[in-house]
Specification:
Layout (H helix, E strand, L loop, with lengths): L4 E3 L5 E5 L52 E2 L20 E5 L2 E13 L10 H4 L4 E9 L4 E9 L3 H12 L19 E9 L2 E9 L4 H18 L10
Antiparallel strand pairs: 1-2, 2-8, 3-4, 4-5, 5-6, 6-7, 7-9, 8-9
């Protein structure tokens, strides 16, 4: 299986997996690099009809948000260690310097166990405790994403599960495929461990949004993974 990993802040790893969907799209073999759009701002509501010329050859650097100038994936502060719920996450409004990306949260699901999203028993084997799914839409519906966030009893269990999932195809987990495109030109899954959590982001895009797909995918995955580096910290005076 082709696999490419990049470092995530805090020592996590983002892995690219094969993505399986309907017969309209065969499993996607993932390359080691993707074209990157020439603009760093969110696309307008009317997508361009052509791909920007001469895109850079490599992906944008992994963001390392500073609390003072970054708006994170969630605006609801929760108590450290509290159970995951999809209400914890709202519309995605990411800002980091000149980078501004948005996606509307269109649905969310909360599970009191990981059984509903466990496709091959990997989550049960690593004692996954709880899961949420989040569905996002951006670029006038030309980009669609589903995120799974899984909580584990320890950082070790989360890392072990993430490593195992990275060696499998995308059917190792179950997600709401009706919230992604049935036919797409970009369809990939990124996953990685962050503290006691595993974040998985499935993103699809049609032809009009392909130039922005990699950009959205990388920042959406890394921003929410970064959020979990601090979610359960207890600050004492």
């Amino acid at each position: 299986m082709g696999l490419f990993s990049v470092l995530l802040i805090g020592g996590g790893v983002v892995a690219f997996l094969y993505m399986r969907d309907s017969a309209q799209n065969s499993p996607v073999a993932l390359p080691t690099a993707d074209p990157v759009p020439t603009t760093t701002t969110a696309p307008q509501s009317d997508p361009p009809s052509t791909t920007p010329s001469d895109p850079p050859a490599s992906e944008p650097a992994q963001p390392t948000p500073a609390p003072s100038d970054t708006k994170s994936a969630t605006s609801k502060r929760v108590d450290p260690g509290s159970p995951l719920t999809d209400d914890e996450f709202e519309d995605w409004d990411f800002k980091l310097g000149d980078v501004k990306l948005q996606a509307k949260k269109v649905a969310g699901w909360t599970y009191d166990s990981c059984d509903p999203v466990d496709g091959q028993g990997v989550l049960a084997k690593n004692h996954c405790l709880r899961a949420v799914q989040l569905a996002y839409s951006a670029y006038g519906g030309h980009i669609k994403a589903v995120q799974l966030v899984l909580s584990f009893p320890s950082e070790g269990a989360a890392k072990t599960a993430a490593t195992r999932l990275a060696s499998l195809t995308s059917d190792a987990v179950k997600w709401h495929t009706d919230r992604t495109h049935k036919s797409y030109v970009y369809g990939k899954m990124r996953s990685g461990a962050s503290k006691k959590y595993v974040v998985i982001t499935v993103l699809t895009a049609d032809k009009a949004a392909k130039p922005m797909a990699t950009y959205y995918h990388q920042y959406l995955q890394s921003d929410i993974a970064s959020y979990f580096l601090f979610r359960d910290l207890t600050i004492t005076s």
